[in-house]
Amino acid sequence: MSALVGLLRNVPLFQDLTEEELRTIAPLFQENKWNRGKLLFMEGDPGDELFVVKSGVVKIYRFDDEKEIILALFGPGDFFGEMAVIQPALNRSATAETLESCLIYTMKRSVFYEFMEKHPRICIKLLEVTVQRLRNANDQIYNLTFLDVRSRIIRTILRLAEERGVKLGDGLLVDIRMTHQQLASFAGTARESATKVLQELSEEGIIIVEKKRIFLPDHEKLKQLAGL
User: Fold this and answer.
1) CA quadruple 89, 62, 100, 54: dihedral sign
2) What integer pLDDT is reported at residue 41 of this predicted model?
3) The whole model's pTM is what?
């Protein structure tokens, strides 16, 4: 239980809770282990659970004209499914699938509601993180609508670096293995287009790709290319 308390302490939704509150909420979670390729839920399914990732990676995606669009990737310390917790009888707006073997903690809406009634401070944090995710969604919509393929790929890499970046020497390593198809799905383009842009960026020395991981030798230079 102490390991779960340590995890929750670093999860944005719970990081403002006191140690006593963390120890109160930790036993309310159920531990689940799933192999790679497990569908946690599908778009349109009834939703009544909150998910917190201990290990592994989960992708959240939708289909647009039979083309997969990845909306988010969640790894250790991340949570998802909060919209189903906020609004009862809300169907899932996307599909969640494990990209790796995962250890994930889940909590039912009814249990979470009971905790919120006794600890209302968490409601403010839930509102804050939900608004931030709406802002991120708006940014992604803008990118998909107005930017060319090269710019979308670059901004996708930057987003992954911000969310999954690990300092390595003077650069940043995107600490997640991604295929060209997955990167293309994230950027809303074809695999061939993503491969072409990655090859160009590699030849320019902007990124280094090795074993499906992307290394950014100069993070600021990539931001300049993205116009940020």
Assistant:
1) negative
2) 95
3) 0.86
